[in-house]
């Protein structure tokens, strides 16, 4: 990798990406393999010193899944302001599905590098080797670069993903991650009731770089869902059947679905009030679940060109005592596009994952 590294002017690169025309669905921002690899290398170095679980202060805007919808990411910055003036926590799933994943991921790494106190990136289940090779990112790079370079660039991103943090705690009160909680939190050392600091420390015993391929705590943090949503197994959504089980197998074929009671217990252990996560389409942009202890934020409007969902960003100015309503949701409607544009914007295969 070192041989192809070049000096990248990060501000210039950010500017090239940020000034892309959101109406343009024909062209891409020209990104060379050398630029991508340099950005990956710098991002990796920057994330080397961060833990699996990071602490963040308000004010903050929380952004859910983006899935390669670069035009919509630019619309978010247009509406809410750019870093460093506006601060952002992203919940993962930057890539796959949308055909502008390279722009999304590169811009976010560049902004994180330029403004480390205003841009925080958590890892989603798509930022893993086996998922990003199957749902579009690998194909996009393959289409945009010659073979030998594509191979290197994909490898560079995959290695960089392995250094990303996976959860964040906002003002000591709100737990954020891509998927959700893990039954491992019920086991030692987490269940020793050592308080937030001890439990965060226990979580940070998980060392980076890591590729969470096997079932376990990191896999659950990126993959789990609350019970009562589309992926929470074979039960009807009648509350009676569900009150008993704290954890159910997840329909995605990986990880679990968690109940309100499971979440209560984990929130108590971490001394946090609620969970904010992404990972699932919410038709109104967000969804409050499990007695308002769990909020799903989804930030890809008109997801995949198939859904007609609105997207949202959760804006938290500062936390007050009424922690059940942490902030306000900024809503973004899908762009009205000519159907012929959709082929340029999305990979057509849509599978639930
Ligand atoms: Mn996801």
Automatic annotation (TrEMBL):
Question: Which keywords fit this entry according to its UniProt record?
Answer: Hydrolase, Manganese, Metal-binding, Protein phosphatase
Enzyme superclass (EC): hydrolase
SUPFAM superfamilies given in the database record: Metallo-dependent phosphatases
Q: Which GO cellular component term is one of those annotated?
A: cytoplasm
Q: Which reaction does it catalyse?
A: O-phospho-L-threonyl-[protein] + H2O = L-threonyl-[protein] + phosphate; O-phospho-L-seryl-[protein] + H2O = L-seryl-[protein] + phosphate
EC number(s) of the enzyme? 3.1.3.16
- Note the superkingdom of the native organism: Eukaryota
Domain named Serine/threonine specific protein phosphatases: residues: 122-127
User: GO: which molecular function terms?
Assistant: metal ion binding; protein serine/threonine phosphatase activity
Q: Which cofactor does it need?
A: Mn(2+)
Q: Write out the similarity annotation.
A: Belongs to the PPP phosphatase family.
The protein, known as: Serine/threonine-protein phosphatase
